Amino acid sequence: MRFQDLFKKPRSPEPLPVEGGILHRKYERFKGILASNNTALSIIADLAHMVYQERPFSLAHVLKQSRLLIREVFSMVEDLNALTGTRYEDLFDIAEAISEAILSELRKKKRIEESALVLPLERLSLEDVEEVGGKAANLGEIYNRARLPVPPGFAVTAYACHHFLEENHLVEKIEEKLGDLDVNDTEKLTTFALVDAGVVTCSTVLTVAAERLTAPELTE
Description:
Order of helices and strands: HHHEHHEHHHHH
Strand content: under 5%
Helix content: 55-70%
Mean pLDDT: 79
Number of strands: 2
Number of domains: 2
Number of helices: 10
Distance between the termini: 99 Å
Shape: elongated
Largest sheet: 2 strands, antiparallel
Structural class: mainly alpha
Strand order of the largest sheet: 1-2
CATH class of the largest domain: Alpha Beta
CATH architecture of the largest domain: 2-Layer Sandwich
Oligomer: single chain
């Protein structure tokens, strides 16, 4: 190579094949893989930030992001097979199995065991944390284990809350609204919370729950 050749401008790249040619179609498929991969990585980063940066999120948002991620994965598999003459067809079944496993886990609803609607603090301990929450369970622990005085009171159980939401058909309404809610948008989140609180407040409390909440042993 001559020294002066180092300073010559590089030749212009060859023009892409005309639209419709086999190389052009392969090029478009390759671009599709790159685009889907970038989108998939962005979704994965969003999901990771929820965990490691302790960002607020809803299950509906995780489901939505997971479905978008699955769509991009299948798009990549489709483009890859188009590029290679269906050399990797088995990836469709593998992606399907992984996708179904992920979605089935996310769709699982935690089963709320039937229990009392309300429980007095003196009957609680840390073993009841999933049923009544940490604050009430800790107060019960202080009273029962440490034998220290605590204010008189009671806890409304998770079963009572679940029963209330189910009886008033609020679960479907709330999940529908959460589906398109960006929990990082403080203004929209506040509006949603206010509207949702209004819906809950206007709902009917079960008669049996109302009777338990006003029972003498809880109100004395």
